[in-house]
């Protein structure tokens, strides 16, 4: 109860019926609600814009990494292809020249860690002549015990300048040889084979091979191994520059390189997808 100036008792007016209450209810509160809604909308729009921009930047970064790796792969495949063409155009069967040529290829390309030829058994008809024959050290190391021509030049894992020679191994069970052969036989045309990465002589490498085909017949392979150390250095430079971690995953879902402690060669997931063509073969 309130008392007016005349001393008479009057009833109190509820806030919701008073002028100030009505102003608060129909003016201030809607304004606050609108402002809050506007703030939420602006925050959401800014978040979406920032997320889109970040996704765009990450896509550009991923495209740049992929392009750099593809350039290296293309260069290595072209080297293997040129080696195969040399065999197909006069060098096939000249084992001494082939040993010298593959060594020169490896010495000329510092990003490569191996260069080699692998003939089919008896492909040039000379295996018997080299089986148990008195040969110089280089030629002797280029053959297996049957006289098959399998020269594999590779960089010593402790000294990259030191080139070593030994015969290729596991041709019939390895992707670099048998996979390349199967790919040719299945398609009846020469195609490059790029293997999954793996550790050999203390280095993570990828093999690029190309079939040697003469008169439509598979005679063997020419190939190079590419070390992935340069790729790892490249990824670390990206991490330092852009403050992001980068993971490079092969087409079969294995880590090739990473800027974290993720082991290379390990599966990127624990999925149980069925093996693809050639996955029953392995690296040497």
Characterization of this structure:
The chain has 284 residues and is of the alpha+beta class. The protein has a single domain (76-284), classed as Beta-Lactamase (2-Layer Sandwich). It contains six helices and eleven strands. Strands 3, 4, 5, 6, 7, 8 and 9 form a seven-stranded antiparallel beta sheet that branches. The chain has a two-stranded antiparallel ribbon with strand order 1-2. Strands 10-11 form a two-stranded antiparallel ribbon. A hairpin with a 2-residue loop joins strand 7 (198-200) and strand 8 (203-214). Helix 1 packs antiparallel against helix 2 (95-108). Mean pLDDT is 82; it is low at 269-280.
Q: List the secondary-structure elements in sequence, H or E.
A: EEHHEHHEEHEEEEHEE
| Strand residue percentage | 15-25%
Q: CATH homologous superfamily name?
A: PAS domain
Number of helices: 6
Mean pLDDT: 82
Determine and state the CATH class.
Answer: Alpha Beta
CATH topology: Beta-Lactamase
**Secondary structure: helix percent:** 40-55%
Distance between the termini: 100 Å
Radius of gyration: 35 Å
């Amino acid at each position: 109860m309130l008392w007016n100036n005349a001393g008479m008792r009057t009833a109190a007016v509820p806030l919701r019926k008073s002028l100030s209450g009505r102003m608060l209810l129909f003016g201030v509160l809607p304004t606050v609600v609108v402002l809050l809604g506007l703030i939420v909308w602006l925050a959401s729009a800014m978040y979406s814009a920032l997320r889109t921009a970040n996704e765009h930047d990450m896509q550009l970064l991923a495209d740049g990494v992929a392009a750099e790796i593809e350039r290296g792969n293309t260069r290595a495949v072209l080297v293997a292809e040129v080696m195969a063409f040399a065999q197909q155009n006069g060098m096939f069967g000249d084992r001494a020249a082939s040993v010298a040529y593959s060594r020169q290829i490896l010495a000329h390309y510092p990003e490569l860690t191996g260069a080699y030829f692998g003939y089919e058994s008896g492909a040039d008809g000379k295996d018997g002549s080299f089986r148990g024959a008195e040969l110089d050290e280089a030629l002797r190391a280029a053959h297996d015990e049957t006289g098959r021509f399998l020269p594999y030049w590779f960089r010593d894992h402790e000294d990259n300048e030191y080139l070593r020679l030994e015969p290729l191994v596991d041709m019939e069970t390895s992707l670099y040889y048998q996979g390349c052969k199967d790919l040719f036989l299945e398609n009846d045309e020469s195609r490059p084979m790029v293997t999954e990465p793996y550790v050999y002589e203390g280095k993570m490498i990828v093999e690029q091979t190309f079939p040697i085909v003469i008169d439509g017949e598979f005679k063997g392979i020419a190939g190079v191994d590419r070390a992935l150390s340069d790729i790892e250095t490249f990824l670390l430079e990206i991490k330092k520059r852009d403050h992001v971690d980068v993971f490079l995953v092969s087409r079969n879902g294995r880590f090739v390189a990473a800027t974290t402690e993720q082991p290379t060669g390990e599966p990127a997931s624990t999925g149980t997808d069925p093996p693809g063509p050639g996955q029953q073969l392995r690296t040497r």
